[in-house]
Amino acid sequence: MTFYRTAAAILAAVVFLCGCSENTEKSSVKSETGNSEDTSSDSAVSENEDLCALAQSLSEDMAAGDFNSAVMLFSPELSAQLDESSLRTAWESTVASIGAFTGASETSEEQTGDNIIVKSVLLYEKKGLEVSYTFNSSGEIEGIWLSYRSLPAVPENGDSYTEQAIKIGSFELDGLLTMPNGVEDPPVVILVQGSGQSDMDESIGENKPFKDIAHGLADNGIAVIRYNKRYYQYPELADDSITVRDEIMEDVSAAAEYAGTVCGSGKIIIAGHSLGGMLAPVMCMEDPDIDAMISLAGSPRRLEDIIYDQNEAALKASGIEEELSPQLEALKEELEKISSLSETDTGEYLGVNAQYWRSLNDMDTVKAAESLDIPMLFVHGGDDFQVYADKDFEIWREHLGDRENCTFKLYEGLNHLFMRSNGRSDITEYDIKGNVSGEVISDISRWINGL
Fold it and tell me: Which of 28, 247, 345, 442 makes a 20 to 30 Å CA pair with 138?
């Protein structure tokens, strides 16, 4: 998701056979075992065999409906957890929404201790599918994951801009640079997604708000950088020690460094959406090379406070608030624990590790914003049912409204994606295809070009 999640989960953890898109909750079971001690298995492949070629062959076999060749290479531990029928079911549910198989793409490998992780990428009509295998020293498969990948970027050349594929940071995150044609040293906007794992377009159903924004700003002479979130592209890297810096902030710093090679004397602007908008002041406070900031439906409050409000509003809308009030009280108790986590606390809270929550709660976004003297723009949709105009947006104005470097814009009738609301006030609203409001893009463009 690219917006704040309710009590289900905020950050998608490592999963096995992730049968979902970036737009839905991941609901599957991790199946990865330790190193196998059995080196005599008849299914083990020779150390001299090309594991990349093997992995690609296995992936193509599964795309064609043959799962036995992969299962025959499972280690005893993985075989005890996953049979051919379960593998087939998980695969079919994962590819059901991404169209027909169109071909194979690249493979890559990396050594991790005694194991080798090989990733093979298959191409489908709507999305790429990365199949990640963990091979032990005997050539057996000890772990297998499925995760979606963006299709290879096709550079776009319009009348007003050119789009090219780029890589961001040490993890080489897939991204796009949208450059306005005929503009020397343009300002560069770095788009930062909200919570959860999303692609560079911040895709939600058929909606691609970051693509809309990138093309709209480029039409107005502004360059834009957007890229996949780290754990969207590499879900297998997520573990119980990750923090919000791992998930978002380190890669934003890398994107800002890249932007410096693009803009020349132009300005660098952070534009964060939702959680990205919440963290944007901290990013700018920590990076003196950032010249301006835009918060798109960001909040100055703690995420756990917003989660409580979301759940309370959902119960009221359901008409069964009285029956479910005990669950709301239990949620409140859990959120209170999150608010008071100490360095010694471990475990998970609402499905997210304690270290992540602590790292998020360490971010005093209001204090950071108050310390900044760079231009800041705060925009919000009046019909946003996830981050509230009458609460979150007003808190920004209460703290910063008298500052000359701060500008505030509220758009009546627009939702969390800055698209026209259909009044549903739940996530089914995003099932309907829309586009980011042209008025919002025009206002942002004028603000940036006026810096």
Answer: 28
Q: Six-digit token pair at 53?
A: 């070629």
The tens digit of pLDDT for each residue in 10-66 reads 222 222 222 233 333 332 323 333 333 343 444 433 443 588 889 989 999 999 999
Cβ neighbours of residue 277 closer than 8 Å, sequence gap 6 or more: 192, 194, 294, 295, 296, 297, 298, 299
220's tokens: 């107005």
pLDDT value of position 164: 93
Residue with tokens 């206002």: 443
Closest CA to 12 of 199, 166, 175: 199
Report the amino acid identity of residue 180.
Answer: P
DSSP string, 386-442: SS-IIIIIHHHHHHHTT-TTEEEEEETTB-TTSSB--S--SGGGGGS-----HHHHH
Question: Which amino acid is it at 314?
Answer: A
Q: Does the pLDDT value for residue 102 go beyond 80?
A: yes
Strands (E), 100-151: 101-112, 115-124, 128-135, 141-149
Pairing status of strand 292-296 against strand 128-135: unpaired
Instruction: Give the pLDDT band (50/70/90) at residue 244.
Output: very high
Tokens, residue 436: 């980011």
- Angstrom distance (rounded) from CA 12 to CA 359: 16
Q: Is 103 left (phi over 0), alpha (psi -120 to 50) or beta?
A: left
Q: What is the pTM of this model?
A: 0.69
Structural domains in the chain? 51-149 (3.10.450.590), 161-306+334-449 (3.40.50.1820)
DSSP string covering 316-382:
HHHT-HHHHHHHHHHHHHHHHHHHT--TT--SEETTEEHHHHHHHHT--HHHHHHH--S-EEEEEET
- Paired with 112 in beta bridges are 115
**DSSP label at residue 32:** B
Q: Which strands make up the sheet holding 161-168, listed edge to edge?
A: 161-168, 173-180, 223-227, 188-192, 268-273, 292-296, 376-381, 406-411
Q: Which residues pair with 349 in a beta bridge?
A: 352
Nearest-CA neighbor of 209 among 272, 129, 256?
A: 272
Helix (H, G, I), strand (E, B) or coil at 172: coil
Per-position b or e across 261-293, b if 16+ CB within 10 A of its CB? ebbeebbbbbbbbbbbbbbbbbbbbeeeebbbb
How many residues in the chain? 451
